[in-house]
Design goal:
By secondary structure, this protein is α+β, with helices and mostly antiparallel strands. The chain has helices spanning 3-18, 38-49; strands at 23-31, 58-64, 66-70, 76-79, 93-97, 101-108. α1 packs across α2 (38-49). Keywords: Metal-binding, Nickel, Zinc.
């Protein structure tokens, strides 16, 4: 479960930025192609934030769908899974979205 180490890194970064201030909410942007399972991340969040200024904070995850552009035919298309293949049959594609894993914001008080 790589969500545990990813979530630990998120909490560590948020704690470093928050200092001693209580964290009330964190918003993440997670790409669908990262293979991060939001439910698993929520579960891990409660574990790794326990006993810290992040404990009890709300974790909001915005899932970004995969999107790619085909270099062969020029079409942009959605990527429902990590298979990088255009409908024209070409695998020469450029991923436009879906690989994000970013802390977008945090609410402290």
């Amino acid at each position: 479960m790589h969500e545990l180490s990813i979530t630990q890194s998120v909490v560590d970064e948020v704690r470093a930025r928050a200092g001693e201030r209580r964290v009330h909410a964190i918003r993440l942007r997670v790409g669908a192609l990262t293979a991060v399972v939001p439910d698993a991340m929520h579960f891990c969040f409660d574990l790794v934030s326990a006993g810290t200024v992040v404990e009890g904070a709300r974790l909001d995850i915005d899932l970004v769908p995969g999107r790619a552009a085909c270099r062969a035919c020029g079409v942009s298309f959605d990527l429902p899974d990590p298979v990088l293949l255009c409908a024209c049959g070409s695998a020469d594609v450029s991923v436009l979205a879906g690989r994000e894993l970013k802390i977008v914001s945090m609410e402290v008080g």
